[in-house]
Fold this protein.
Amino acid sequence: MVLTKKRLVFIAFALLAIFFILLLNLPESVVGHRGDNILLFIPQILFLAITTSIVATIIIVIIFKKNYVKSQIFTFNRYKHYLRLLIKRDFITKYRKSILGVLWSFLNPLLTMLVMTFVFQHLFRFQIDNFPVYVFSGQLIFNFFQESTTLAMNSVIASEGVIKKVYMPKYIFPLSRVLSSLVNMFFTFIAFMLVFIFTGSEFYWTMLLIPIPLIYIFVFSLGVAMLLSSLAVFFRDLTYLYGVFTLLLMFLTPIIYPVDIIPEQFLGVYGLNPMFQFVQYFRYVAMWNTVPDLWTNMVCIGLALSSLCIGTFVFMRQQDKYILSL
């Protein structure tokens, strides 16, 4: 069967309808209490159905384009050494001519955490158990997302000289920036564990699950990075608008304030914020000795994979046009 565009669109909408009906009828033991107003519950179901249908559609395209996928894997293996060089360069460049160097990976989040703890716990009087760890856990996830996507957004533009001279897979540039931020997050995580120890926080066995939310946020950030780096080539103003967007997103994510202050009628809307989901997941396993339920994992997986699929699709679709706009 030939997979035409019309058939693909039909399959996507059919999958959307099927997933929406299936998710809407999941038992409350999976999705939690729906509440008195079903209208607050439907947006979450619809959003997850859309992300699931997108992922399923992309998988179908991959199945029908096996030769293309194999050629991309072969190309990546040829240039993976260059990817390592880019990661090393980004990391060295970040701390070049700095007296403390890599120590800023520890000091920067620590100092930010101390300022936020003083302002919001003592001046605004937020009553949260172990507030320094609470703030740091939110910082760890959100700062990785913000740093990786911001750096990746200009990665293709900054590599104009290389792109115009030699051929190489262009997705290597945003990928290298996200991986560089991942290395930086590793040092930040060490600082997080030091704060965890110094504040006398209790260690739980659920901390063994910490790699799961880190994988989720990495995959999600990579998808957003691919999308932004592609759009920024054609719309340079995006680099300025994105700073405003991330600032808004930070205030919509419970990094410095407790979830309890969010009105119950708005929790459904907050649930549509991907960073809310990833930050809460990390706190579940790192602070609250809780194993996230099936529904929470479904939401995080759906967000991560849909971001990766959409970002990769847009990037690969537009990459041949980059040279005309650089």
